[in-house]
Amino acid sequence: xxxxxxxxxxxxxxxxxxxxxxxxxxxxxxxxxxxxxxxxxxxxxxxxxxxxxxxxxxxxxxxxxxxxxxxxxxxxxxxxxxxxxxxxxxxxxxxxxxxxxxxxxxxxxxxxxxxxxxxxxxxxxxxxxxxxxxxxxxxxxxxxx
Length: 145
Description:
145 residues, mainly alpha, 5 helices, 0% strand, globular, DoxX family protein, membrane, transmembrane, transmembrane helix
């Protein structure tokens, strides 16, 4: 059986891992908004996977908003909202990636999309255990409250 301290450390590691993983994608939106939005060559990532055609300016704004949201998540504030939001973002990614995952099982496509499954599981675990995620968390609740 683990102690409350080791659980808090493990959840902190999970929170930081998810933060780093998701922050890379958010920063990528700012660095290369054309790859997400509508381009001369056709639809970007939002169009191809989500069916939403967005201009580069809007993709940039989404990237900035996502970074701010993820920083709040990383700081452990408003955990119901931030861990829930991270879970929902990863759920949406899994749902829109499912055709690519199924295609890869047939030998075509990109099997890397299957990483959405453990990321979703990690997001769900952190959401369900958010009250025990107290190490270096500004939104930490006091034991027994």
